[in-house]
Structure formats: C-alpha cells, structure tokens
C-alpha cells in the first residue's frame, strides 16, 4: 500500500518542461520528502506540471513530519536549505509551487511571488580587519593578501609593494591589524560581508594577556598601579572617570 504526494508547478506543462529541469525538481523533492527508499516517482498529471510520487505506507508518518518541519520557522537546517533551493528554482522559472500530501499537509512555495531581498549596495568605510596573514603575492603594483580570523577568511585584500615587503616578515606569524578602506555589502539577512579592502597601514597586536599588561604597568616607577589590590576593578573605575587608587587615597 502507498499514498500519493503531489508537487504542482504552475508555469510548466508536461509537454513544455525540459527533461533536465524536471530531473532537478525530482532530485530536490526527493531530498525534501526524505525516506528515499520508500518514496518513488509515479507519473506527471496533465495541465500544469504536477509531479506525483508514491509514499510507502510505513514511511507516511516520517514524510508527514518532514513536511510539517518545512512549514516551521525554526526548521532543521537541511530542510531550510532544500526548501529555499526549490523556491529559488521556481522563482527562476517564473513559477509558484505547492506540495500536497493528504488533506492537511500543504507546503506552499511562493517562487515568483516571494518578496525580493533589498539590495543595499556597497558601503565604503574606513576601518580595520584583524587576523593572521596566510597569503601574500602578486606581480603588479597591487599586492594581494589573505587574512585568517578564526573561521573567517578575508580575501580580495590589497596593498602596495612597500607595505607588502614589511608584511612579508609577518606571514604565518602574530595577529596583525590592517587599517584601510573597506567595501562592505549587506546581505538579505542583515549581516555584512567584506567585498574588498585596501590596506593603508598595519600594526602587530600584542600577544600579552591582561594580567601581563597590568604587571608591566605596575612595574613602571612613578605610577599608582602597584597600590591597587584589584587592577581589573581599577580599570573599570577608570572607565567611569575615577583615577587609579583614588578610593584608597580618600580613605
């Protein structure tokens, strides 16, 4: 025993949909439904292209659960990825789609009718990026480099030959800060991505932790850091406008 599940594409008919495109939809639908061993292509209905598949009875609850997830805001990442891929394909085909499985299990795909993301363009801004220099090279006047900051890899970063000669001494070395002009692009999700960055100058960041820095300050003659029993608290008080050891001197 099996139950039918359908996917309707309103812009194509069985006579006009290219075979390759039909195959792409079948692949993505198979991923969306899951249970690959229990879901099989059955036929195309006439009229608009309606892809009919058969779901083996034991797999029905799992496919229903999978489709229910596709309608949720907090869906699993793989379901979200597949849903977006199918919706993008529909938009490219100037189509709208819908999956139907029984009476209550309906998954709409807005396709061409979806709200298009706003293009904010490129914003150019002075600033800096930080990380480890992992690549440096080029044969023209502009030298290209790459900077690794954890999982983020900054590419399309350029500088002049003079600065590049100095940076070459630091490759695969300490964390550096590159100052310059960046071109940033905002995504539809609201995040910012770096398109390009032109380096004007750089600095090597200290690898000392905060306790080492404070110890160095306490060792400098003529200051009051050595009077502080809690240097971290002193730093916080300084940010609030109170000088180091002021509390002790007032006692």
Quick take:
With 251 residues, the chain is of the alpha+beta class. It is 29% helix and 35% strand.
Description:
This protein is an alpha+beta fold and 251 residues long. It has three domains: 2-113, Alpha-Beta Plaits (2-Layer Sandwich); 122-204, Beta Barrel (OB fold (Dihydrolipoamide Acetyltransferase, E2P)), CATH 2.40.50; 211-249, no CATH class. The protein is 29% helix and 35% strand. The protein is built from seven helices and ten strands. The protein has helices spanning 19-33, 60-70, 77-92, 161-167, 210-219, 231-239, 246-249, and strands at 2-9, 39-45, 49-56, 97-101, 105-109, 122-137, 143-149, 152-159, 175-186, 192-204. It has a five-stranded antiparallel beta sheet, covered by helices on one side. A five-stranded mixed beta barrel has the order 6-7-8-10-9. It is elongated, with a radius of gyration of 30 Å.
